[in-house]
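Review this:
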Amino acid sequence: MNIVSHIECSRCGKQLPPGRLYNLCECGGPLLVRYRLSSNAMPRDAVTARAKTLWRYREVLPLGGDASPVTLGEGFTPLLHATRLGERMGLPNLYLKDEGTNPTGSFKARGQSVAITMARELGVRKVAIPSAGNAGGAMAAYAAAAGLEALVYMPEGTPVMNRLECSILGAGVKLIAGSIKDCGRALAERIRSEGWFDVSTLKEPYRIEGKKTMAYEVVEQLDRVPEVMIYPTGGGTGLIGMWKAFAEMEQLGWTSGRRPRMIAVQATGCAPMVRAFEGGAERADEWVDPATIASGLRVPSAVGDALILRAIRESGGTAVAVDDDTMLRAVREIAQTEGVVTSPEGGATLGALERLRRQGLIAPSESVVLFLTGSGYKYLEALEAVAENSQQRRSGLHR
């Protein structure tokens, strides 16, 4: 049974009635869905017998009544015990949350499943988004499944596979010079003049509800709360959503109150959250000339910047930036120790873990979850560099 209480502005606290279309609050703050939660609202033993998709957590998702979700089987992705990688790192309790197994190959499927479900339920016929890659593909897929028209604005440097994916799925695609921020500015006029509904990161309240289910799954799969969660952070919806989920799980009686330290990982060529965190700021200034091979981290400013920074600080976590070479080396390391080909964003989490271990900020006894947010198979250009480097290393070994 759906138990939505209201929609709440994360900035000014204004409460709005549920079951309506919203973008940002009139004050400019992102909106969040709030629920009436208690220890009997969603018992864990009741969830266990349900289908292994994110919709098993139906009570804490915004779709009401008996309405059917728009689903492609997203969620309940593998939580892999990284024994070989953990042995090298001196971390016997190291885990990989492999989001690349989701439909369209990334964690973006979670958010778009819920966002498109709610858009369709509330009468939307046309959805639009600026995207650096995976979000656009996921939106196009779920829009196609829902029978909605889709429009995606992408930076010219977006990986080829992401652009092709959107087109194949029937979305209109327009390439824009610059970053995802420039795409958002260019798209805004069409949204205003042509009546598209904006499903950009945190510019509507429902994508985050799909993303938060990663935390529910980790607790269910691990049967405890990990000490550390390391997450590649561009727009930051996943990190914000999971922090929200831990608060919900406490109210549901799933957890006892201990929460993980949240580690946000960015690229050295685009690290507005790292800079703001280190400077003690509550908001993050826009990053000028963002540059990184990880398109999902090429986000110069985030609508949810204050929420990201709040989650990091409240959890006792930190923010770390890693360079592209480190990401690509880590992609190879994960592949050759654990058999998972992840995206550069996923590689960034291992790079951050290595630094935190050197600094003594993660103890050997702690359980750590790295979020591999997308499949590496969609990053052909990046994988080519990884493969060439691996071939060179093998050639050197056999001389």
About this structure: The chain has a mean pLDDT of 95. The chain is about 40% helix and 15% strand. Residues 79-106+207-390 form a domain with the Rossmann fold fold (CATH 3.40.50.1100). The longest strand covers residues 149-155.
